[in-house]
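Record type: monomer structure entry
Structure origin: computed from sequence
Chain ID: A
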Amino acid sequence: MSKKFFFATAVAMLALAQAASAQTNLQTFYDFGKNRGHFTTTLEGFYGDNWGNTFFFIDYDYNAKDANGVNQAPSGSYMEIARCLNFWGDSALAPFSLQVEYNGLVGVNQNFLFGVDYFLHNEDFSNTFNFKLLYKTFSNGATSSLPLQFTFVWGMQDIFGVQGLRFSGFADIWGEDVVNFNEANFITGDNVHNRKFVFISEPQIWYNVGQLFGCPNFHVGSEVELSINFAGYDGFYARPCIGTKWVF
């Protein structure tokens, strides 16, 4: 999954933190995109305080197979943790926060990001939007001609007037010098393409089905990973998932 920025849960500033309680949730997805066919779990949390807010998620892909092709164990893990700092909630600069972020893919690379977050919302905070401009560092030999990342995060509650129906997600685009392959040539290494940017978005839709039988913690939904030049694959890909979410 990656870059989940949830997420899909909107990362909000102090104003949102004062209007909504902290949340931890566990998402379980089955990825039925081409050449996927495995489960992924995402543990995600958002917590507000008087100095801003903290967001994190940890992904595990369950795709390590035995000689018979049966999944046996997690095949990889990715995590992000982001801290927004805001000490000026009563001023005209209240929508702006300073952000520090760390993310890492086990055995591959890690990144530190520094920048600003701009937060918008409607009156009751049912619709939230974050715009982020971040400077991004690279490791393990990765380089970038333009080491900036732009992130958009959204959360929209009770869409179409349906109570418990939520549309959320994120979109990232950043500069990185990447070497990609067409999916058909990914293993052979033919048809190499040098690209300068990466894009990924993961819109999610959730319905609080548990509210119908006295268990509002339980949600069902779907996610689609939309990407360009991501994870070594050249060009555009759309990879759908179905899943469940439990809110603790």
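Annotation 1: The mean pLDDT is 87.
Annotation 2: Residues 79 and 117 are 20 Å apart (CA to CA).
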